[in-house]
Amino acid sequence: AGAAKIIDGKQIAEDIRREIAAEVAALKAATGKAPGLAVVLVGARKDSETYVRSKKKACAEVGFESFGTDLPEDASEQEVLDVVARYNADPNVHGILVQLPLPKHIDEQRVLDAISITKDVDGFHPQNIGSLAMRGRSPLYVSCTPKGCLELLKRSGVELKGKTAAVVGRSNIVGLPVALLLQNEDATVTMVHSRTPDAAEVVRRADVVVAACGRAEMVRGDWIKPGAVVIDVGINAVDDAAAKRGYRLVGDVDFKGACERASAITPVPGGVGPMTIAMLLQNTLEGAKRQIGAPAN
Ligand code: NDP
């Protein structure tokens, strides 16, 4: 017991970023062009500023060209739509990301719908999610965090075909696309949400558990089927007087308890988190290759 293999998302994300940098160099050599990502930030939320900064830094590190527009908190919806329209039309921009949440007076759906689906690297456009959900179709982009969860499973050699999976959470940005992706890999998927009468009972039957409920350590160790693989998407700050900042980060899974039963598990931090930006880079590279035209070798 207690011997769960730790799935090292930080290391896997680093490997992927190195692979991307090599591909970018090859693309530049063949076409003279680099993938371009535009990040739109409205307002001055500290957390959003931090995310945007790290996304831009990650772009620079793999050789992308990065574009950015920062608008003030009181920018109008039309101003945001104008910025999106400008990037839609710019041939040097292959991916557009609008950092969420937007200020309350702006209709988030209208802004996301305005992003060209060919540049929708966050994969939040309803047409991309719809294509993910339909048999025989493939989306141009899959959202970064869900894609990162699947990539972790793949690179850890976890077989999904014929397995049972439980996804805790059904949000548009995590739970729903994760469930669709697992189903596309031929897992039999059950989704758990806040109205599920007995979440523990559903999770106990699962060979693969993805937790994305935004509730600190809600998924208890004794919910985990012995030998199951656990992907913990949650990022929750809990007060901790002993920690330097006065808080520490925990997942949506009771990590210690789950380690007693799982065969493999992602830690928080250092699991799914680092994969999100790696997948954003991968989506932008894929989009750039489609838009530039694949190099002739
Ligand atoms: P949301 O709050 O949008 O969704 C939470 C989901 O969990 C909802 O579907 C909700 O159900 C369900 N839920 C809430 N309480 C319970 C409960 N008691 N039992 C069962 N289900 C419950 O969160 P997100 O999907 O945006 O994020 C989920 C977690 O992942 C968060 O901790 C977030 O911080 C983290 N996250 C991490 C990312 C990363 O690693 N890069 C990126 C994005 C998110 P209902 O639909 O019924 O309300």
UniProtKB/TrEMBL annotation:
One of its GO terms (cellular component) is cytosol. It catalyses: (6R)-5,10-methenyltetrahydrofolate + H2O = (6R)-10-formyltetrahydrofolate + H(+); (6R)-5,10-methylene-5,6,7,8-tetrahydrofolate + NADP(+) = (6R)-5,10-methenyltetrahydrofolate + NADPH. GO terms for molecular function: methenyltetrahydrofolate cyclohydrolase activity; methylenetetrahydrofolate dehydrogenase (NADP+) activity. Pathway: One-carbon metabolism; tetrahydrofolate interconversion. Residues 143-291 form the Tetrahydrofolate dehydrogenase/cyclohydrolase NAD(P)-binding domain. One of its GO terms (biological process) is tetrahydrofolate interconversion. InterPro entries: Aminoacid_DH-like_N_sf (IPR046346), NAD(P)-bd_dom_sf (IPR036291), THF_DH/CycHdrlase (IPR000672), THF_DH/CycHdrlase_cat_dom (IPR020630), THF_DH/CycHdrlase_CS (IPR020867), THF_DH/CycHdrlase_NAD-bd_dom (IPR020631). Keywords: Hydrolase, Multifunctional enzyme, NADP, One-carbon metabolism, Oxidoreductase. Gene3D superfamilies: Leucine Dehydrogenase, chain A, domain 1 (3.40.50.10860), NAD(P)-binding Rossmann-like Domain (3.40.50.720). Residues 7-122 form the Tetrahydrofolate dehydrogenase/cyclohydrolase catalytic domain. CDD domains: NAD_bind_m-THF_DH_Cyclohyd. It comes from the Eukaryota. The keyword Cell membrane does not apply. Pfam families: THF_DHG_CYH, THF_DHG_CYH_C. Catalyzes the oxidation of 5,10-methylenetetrahydrofolate to 5,10-methenyltetrahydrofolate and then the hydrolysis of 5,10-methenyltetrahydrofolate to 10-formyltetrahydrofolate. NCBIfam families: PRK10792.1, PRK14186.1, PRK14188.1. Belongs to the tetrahydrofolate dehydrogenase/cyclohydrolase family. Homodimer. This is 5,10-methylenetetrahydrofolate dehydrogenase. The lineage of its organism: Eukaryota, Viridiplantae, Chlorophyta, core chlorophytes, Chlorophyceae.
